Amino acid sequence: MKLAVIGAGNIGGAIIRGYLAAGNAPDDIIVCGHHLRRLVRLQEELGVGLAETPADAAALADTVLVAVKPKDVAAVLGEIGAADCRPLIISVAAGKTLAELDAMLGGTEDKASGFRIIRAMPNTPAAVGAGMTAICRGQSATEQDAEMSLEVFKSVGRAVEVPESLMDAVTGLSGSGPAFVYMFIEALADGGVAVGLPRQKAVELAAQTVLGSARMVLETGDAPGELKDAVCSPGGTTITGVRELEASAFRSAAIEAVIAAAEKSASM
Ligand SMILES: NC(=O)c1ccc[n+]([C@@H]2O[C@H](COP(=O)([O-])OP(=O)(O)OC[C@H]3O[C@@H](n4cnc5c(N)ncnc54)[C@H](OP(=O)(O)O)[C@@H]3O)[C@@H](O)[C@H]2O)c1
After folding, report:
1. Which of 68, 73, 76 is the best mutation target for the ligand 1 pocket, counting ligand atoms within 8 Å of the beta carbon and taking the most?
2. Which CATH number fits domain 177-267: 3.40.50.620, 1.10.10.10, 1.10.3730.10, 1.25.40.10?
3. CATH topology of domain 3-166
4. Residue 63 half-sphere exposure, CB side, CA atoms within 13 Å?
5. Which atom, in ligand 1's list, is nearest to the CA of 13?
6. Looking at the whole model, is its pTM more than 0.70?
7. Ligand 1 centre from 227 Cα, in Å?
8. Burial class for 2, CB neighbours closer than 10 Å (0-12, 13-18, 19+)
9. What is the pLDDT along the chain (268 residues), one digit of tens a residue?
C-alpha cells in the first residue's frame, strides 16, 4: 500500500517514523509538506518519496493521511477533491466531522463526495510509539479501510474503532488525558520532593510508576480496582495513601475532568 502523508509535523512525523519502524518500505511513503528544506532532510534521513502538492501526493497513493492543523484541512482536501483520484482519506484533524470532511472534498447535501473517509483522534504519546488512537469511518469506507487505518495508527501505539458519536468522549479521555496524567505525575513527584527525594529522581520514580501501572492494566487485563486492592495490605502504607486520595475526591476530580473535556469538544 502507498501511503501519502500531508503535513509532516508532530503527528504526521510520528506516523511516518512509526510506519517505517513497523517494517513498511520507505518507497511506499510519499510526504507532502510546506518547507522544501525540511522535506529534503526527511527524504535523505528516511528514504521516503516527496510530492509537491496534496493533489500530486494523492495521485500516487492508495491512502492519504491528512495531518495538517484543522484550519488548513479545507485547503488540502479541496485540492484532493478536485483531482481525479479517489484514495482512502484519513483525517486526524481535531473536531472535523465526517460530514464536514466530505463537504471539503466536494460532497453536497444531496450527493456525497465519493471518497472513503476515516476520521481519527490520536494523542501526543504517538511521538514515542505509545499513542492511543480512536478511528471512526464514513459511510463509504469499508471494513478493509478501517482495518488498514487501524494498522497505520498501531504503528505508533494502540488503535480502536468507535462510532462517530463517541469521538467527543474519546477526545475527553485519550485526547486530553495525557495532560491529566502529566499533572498526576507532577503531583506525585512534588509529594516525593516533599518527603525528601531530589526532583529529578522523584520525576523518574513517578513517571515509571505510572508507566508500569498502565502496563499492568493493559497486560494482565485485570480491572484497575482489583490491581489496587492487591497492593493494599491491611493497615499498610498504601491503603493509608488511598484513604487520603478518597478524602480529596481524587477519583471524582478525574471523572469530572474527562466529562468536562468531552462536553467542551462537543460544543466546539
Ligand atoms: N498533536 C497532537 O497531539 C494531536 C492530537 C490529536 C489530533 N491532532 C491533529 O493532528 C493535526 C496535526 O497536528 P500537529 O500537532 O501534528 O501539527 P503540526 O506539528 O503543526 O503539523 C502540521 C504540519 O502540516 C504542514 N502543513 C500545513 N499546511 C499544509 C499544506 N497545505 N500542505 C502540506 N503541509 C501543510 C505544516 O507545515 P508548516 O508548519 O511549515 O506550515 C506542519 O508541518 C491537527 O489537525 C490536529 O488537530 C494532533
Report:
1. 68
2. 1.10.3730.10
3. Rossmann fold (3.40.50)
4. 23
5. 16
6. yes
7. 38
8. middle
9. 899 999 999 899 999 999 999 899 999 999 999 888 889 999 999 999 999 999 999 999 999 999 999 999 999 999 999 998 999 999 999 989 999 999 999 999 999 999 999 999 999 999 899 999 999 999 999 999 999 999 999 999 999 999 999 999 999 999 999 999 999 999 999 999 999 999 999 999 999 999 999 999 999 999 999 999 999 999 999 999 999 999 999 999 999 999 999 999 999 8
